[in-house]
Amino acid sequence: MKTGCLSFILFFISFYSSAQDSLLNMLDADIPIEREHVTNAFKSTRVIMSHSIEHVGAGALDFRILHRFGMFSMGLPGAFGFDKASMRIGLDYGISKRLMIGIGRSTFKEEADAFAKYRLFWQTKGKYRMPFTIELVSGITVYGTPWEFPDRKNYFSSRIAYYHQLIVGRKFSDRLSIQGGPVVVHRNFVEHADEPNDIYSCEIGGRIKLTKRFSVNADYFYIFPNQLPETATMPLSLGVDIETGGHVFQLHITNASAMSERALITETTGKWSKGNLGFGFNLSRVFTIYDKQNHQKPKLTNPQNF
Questions:
Q1: Residue 306, in any domain of the structure
Q2: Rounded to whole angstroms, what are the CA distances from 142 to 49, 111, 187, 263?
Q3: Which of 87, 68, 81 is nearest to 275 (CA)?
């Protein structure tokens, strides 16, 4: 699997060399730029769990609710997981066409998070094309649950973790989009001395669009071995996206309960083979806060950003 992840990245690097030649030819030629940015690779800024290569439009605010029920394996006494739930409420804002930021709060370990997402390269079509999109995401998380060992000296910095994700993606057609790339999570504090502070993984995700407003999505995080306890498992999620005007509903089945990158990668323990799966959904509602093109603040509207 590690080889497959690296092969995926190398596959897009091979595209990069051809794209670079096209860019150099464009710079050398004294002619107008003939290109068009590729949009709507995904219906949302999240594939399911992972960030996608999509952005909130410049001047738009995305109000997001992420909800995860408990595991089906809890059986009838736990209403097959529906008696237990965790959620995250967040706000994402598009500063420009290439830069967006976001903040959120999760019930899982009472965790707060913030991130910035920047589009380094944007897939384009036309005479001078860039064959893929490259995104860089950096975030910070802080959990707020009481100290597990309050008698010892504890530091606030021990609550903090960081993550960095490089996403390489391509919209191959109107129906198929695929992305992937490395993710590193740094935890300031770990409980076990033999457990590293830095955890390396690789995300792979994709979408198959079936109708104008309906698609099937999947994403998977491969965590490189010998980093986490044996109880840790790989987060795998399968679901559908449904667009209804200003809302995007993402319904899915997953073995992960957490929603921040730190907790998702380091604390997932559910096993698909044992039925440790739960139902979840992401709900997105986008508002236009500032119309940068017309330099005015309009009323809240229903923009089609995805």
A1: no
A2: 19, 5, 10, 11
A3: 81
Q: Which pTM value belongs to this model?
A: 0.82
- Indicate the SS3 state at residue 305: coil
- DSSP-assigned states of every residue in 159-196: GEEEEEEEEEEEE-SSSEEEEEEEEEEEES--SSTTS-
Confidence of residue 194 (pLDDT cuts 50, 70, 90): confident
Q: Give 37's strand partners.
A: 124
- Which CATH number do you get for residue 248? 2.40.160.40
CA–CA gap between residue 161 and residue 157 (Å, rounded): 9
Reported as a single tens digit per residue, the pLDDT across 17-44 is 444 444 444 444 444 556 789 999 998 9
Specify if 299 maps to a domain: no
SS3 state at 225: coil
| Residue 58 DSSP one-character state | B
Q: What share of the chain is helix, strand, coil (3-state, %, to 5)?
A: 15, 45, 40
Q: What is the residue whose two structure tokens read 């790339």?
A: 181
In a domain, 258, yes or no: yes
Helices (H), 44-188: none
For residue 174, give its domain range. Answer: 2-288
pLDDT at 117: 98
Q: Which residue has the tokens 């967040």?
A: 90
| Number of structural domains found in the chain | 1
Q: For residues 206 and 233, what is the distance between their CA atoms, to the nearest angstrom?
A: 20
Quick one: which of 213, 98, 116, 220 has its CA closest to 162? 116
With beta carbons less than 8 A apart as the criterion, state whether 104 and 91 touch: yes
On whether residue 300 sits in a domain, the answer given is no
What is the DSSP pairing of strand 198-211 with strand 214-223? antiparallel
